[in-house]
């Protein structure tokens, strides 16, 4: 097969499938998988949960990044991101603009604070379903993380931090994440699935992120926008007015 046909096949495969299967078909497929850095410019290693206990996902992720020959601009990994991998990624992907870590553990606050400074071009960041990654006992990111992000990634425009499910309907000081996100003034899109922020926290984000165009707060059930908030005030109505400028909006329900 000609090279462009082989690459057309590869572009329809998950990068794990390329590394573990397509790479072993024949010598021409192996050369295409190893000698075409453009194939690894945007690496996605999601799904394949059934393989997570049988393969070294972080080793495979390092192999994928190495094949990009310094051209990797985006990495999305599930079960494939600890401090050692982030260090390797910073060394091998100096042009990285998008980093999405899903169900990844093993990074302390000090390690993150040091490593995130190695990605000054970062425009997109996701830290989702990572119960042991940089979070305190309430499930929120440590406040220091947002301070570090603000200094290290001034070009950050897209932020995702999702939980698997909403834990508890409660009111109180649940806006630690919202207060930190409100300092990300350049945000264009924000996704906070199953976060416990309240109306106050959401209002702070809307007031301080004037360029926000996409907002996803599904399953954020402490946010009340139905017009009949407890206490009989107009908080929900005011929030709906603030959200009117958002082009893509997904509400708690």
Automatic annotation (TrEMBL):
Signal peptide: none annotated. This is F-box domain-containing protein. PANTHER family: F-BOX DOMAIN CONTAINING PROTEIN, EXPRESSED, F-BOX DOMAIN-CONTAINING PROTEIN. Pfam families: F-box-like. Residues 1-43 form the F-box domain.
């Amino acid at each position: 097969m000609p090279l462009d046909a082989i690459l057309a096949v590869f572009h329809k495969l998950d990068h794990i499938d390329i590394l573990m299967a397509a790479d072993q078909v024949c010598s021409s497929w192996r050369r295409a998988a190893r000698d075409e850095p453009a194939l690894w410019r945007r690496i996605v290693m999601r799904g394949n949960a059934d393989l997570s206990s049988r393969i070294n996902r972080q080793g495979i992720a390092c192999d994928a990044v190495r094949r990009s020959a310094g051209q990797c601009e985006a990495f999305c990994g599930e079960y494939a991101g600890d401090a050692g991998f982030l260090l390797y990624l910073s060394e091998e992907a100096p042009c990285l603009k998008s980093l999405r870590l899903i169900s990844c553990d093993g990074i302390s606050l000090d390690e993150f604070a040091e490593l995130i400074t190695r990605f000054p071009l970062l425009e997109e960041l996701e830290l989702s379903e990572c119960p042991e990654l940089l979070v305190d006992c309430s499930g929120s990111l440590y406040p220091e993380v947002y301070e570090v992000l603000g200094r290290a990634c001034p070009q950050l425009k897209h932020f995702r931090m999702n939980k698997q499910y909403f834990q508890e309907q409660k009111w109180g000081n649940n806006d630690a994440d919202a207060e930190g996100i409100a300092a990300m003034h350049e945000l264009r899109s924000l996704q906070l699935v199953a976060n416990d922020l309240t109306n106050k926290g959401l209002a702070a984000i809307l007031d301080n992120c004037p360029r926000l165009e996409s907002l996803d707060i599904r399953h954020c059930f402490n946010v009340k926008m139905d017009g009949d908030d407890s206490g009989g005030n107009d908080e929900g109505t005011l929030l709906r007015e603030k959200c009117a400028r958002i082009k893509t909006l997904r509400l708690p329900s």
